[in-house]
Amino acid sequence: MTNSLADTICLRCGACCAAFRVSFDRSELDSEGGKVPDGLADTETASLCRMRGTDYAQPRCVALQGKVGERVSCAIYAERPGPCREFAPLAELGIFSPACNRARRRHGLPDLPADQTDY
Predict the structure, then answer these.
(1) For range 45-64, the mean pLDDT
(2) pLDDT digits (tens, 9 = 90+) for 27-39
(3) Which value, in Å, is the radius of gyration of the alpha carbons in the chain?
(4) Domain ranges of the chain
(5) What count of Cα atoms within 13 Å lies in the side-chain half-sphere of residue 38?
(6) Percent helix, strand and coil across the chain, each rounded to 5?
(7) Residue 11: exposed, middle, or buried by beta-carbon count in 10 A (0-12, 13-18, 19+)?
C-alpha cells in the first residue's frame, strides 16, 4: 500500500487497533517460525495467542503508536499477525468494512464508505 486511499485514511485512523481483540495462531510467533514478536503477545489457549493490550474493555494494541483519529502507525507492521493483515481487504479500493466503521464509531470518528457484503 503505497500512497493509496487506505494509507491516507488508515494512517490517520487506527481505530481498529484500539477496538478489537486480536487473537491469532501460535504459529505466527517468532519463536514458532512466524514473525510476531513473542514479547508483544499473551497466551490465550494452547494454540492461540493475542496481541497485548487487546483484551481489555477499552482495547489498544501494544504495537499501536500515535493518537487514534489523528496520526498512527503500527510498530510491527511488517510482522503483524494474520487478523491485522486481513482486517480491511478492500480498503485499498476505498471500500471499508462494517467492522472498520464500528471501530471508528467507538472513537467518535465518522463512517467511511462500506462494502455491501458481510465479512
Answers:
(1) 97
(2) 999 999 999 999 9
(3) 14
(4) 5-22+55-106
(5) 5
(6) 35, 20, 45
(7) middle
